[in-house]
Amino acid sequence: MREIASALLLIIGFLLQSTLFSQFTIGGIVPNILIIIVASIGFLVSRRSGMLTGFFAGLLVDIFFGSVLGIYSLFYMYIGYLNGFFKKILYSGDFKLPIMLIAISNLVYGHCCYFVFFLIKGDFNYSYYLVSIILPEVIYTTVLACIFYPFINYIFKKIAKREERFEDTIG
Q1: Integer Cα distance of 47 and 68 in angstroms
Q2: Reported confidence tier of residue 167, pLDDT bands at 50, 70, 90
Q3: The whole model's pTM is what?
Q4: What does the alpha-carbon distance between residue 151 and residue 145 come to, in Å, rounded to a whole number?
């Protein structure tokens, strides 16, 4: 059930990010809805689920927008996996830590993109990239995470309760 929910969230998030939110840019910046989903699944479900969701999220980005297949898959996969380490310390009613993890994930993602796509090509204008692209995207994504995360948390809480009830009736 979690896999189906993850897949549906991923598809919906990708469609929202590539259609609706690409029309509502702020200064040319599109929020990263996929980071919200991948990070959330990582720390709400598991490292493995975060990693797999991240891989498929990155694969979607690679196929539709990337120039090299696999770069975004690696970025998102590591983000999902690393967020999975916080599953054990995350209190389900806590709101601040997940939002901070999503913001940090987006910050790391932005730096990875800068390193792979700009720095290696000799574009050393880091301060411009940080102020014009990375930080605005982090802020925009974090604001939307405040809206999307409670919904994602609710879905996975319901799934966990349903699985728990199912195990109680069987076992």
Answers
A1: 25
A2: confident
A3: 0.93
A4: 10
DSSP 86: T
Longest dimension (CA), the chain: 61
Do 33 and 144 form a contact (C-beta atoms < 8 A)?
Answer: yes
Tokens standing for residue 54: 């991240």
Residue among 45, 52, 114, 111 at smallest CA distance from 84: 45
Which stretches of the chain are DSSP H helices?
2-15, 21-23, 33-44, 47-64, 71-84, 96-114, 126-129, 135-170
42 in Cβ contact with 23 (< 8 Å): no
CB atoms closer than 10 angstroms to residue 97: 13
Total length of the chain: 171
Distance separating alpha carbons of residues 27 and 147, to the nearest angstrom: 21
